[in-house]
Write a structure and sequence with these properties.
This protein is of the alpha+beta class. It is built from 2 helices and 5 strands, in the order E-H-E-E-E-E-H.
Length: 112
Amino acid sequence: MDQLYLARGNTDLRKSIDGLAVLVKEGFDLDPFSSALFVFCNRERDKLKILHWEHNGFWLYYRRLERGRFQWPAEGIASTMTISRRELRWLLDGLSIEQRRAHRAVAARTVV
């Protein structure tokens, strides 16, 4: 599974692929050419971008909410945090990544 890095606080989303890649490399000391997903949110918490390198080019995903806000973590000690795909789904659905009421992940049991 690819790593998911969430940029805490807000990011100027006028940045496009090159600007976000520089932020990943110089600001977070991470490799933008890795297979990781890098997730950024604006100050108003109603837009986000996801930067992703695949084979020979970047993908730039963009989401704008017409109503509501993303439950984005405030800037903390680290400028990035690693999250799971499940936590990203929660964020995209308008929920907090610290879900207390979510079901725990279950792995299939094998019969021996």
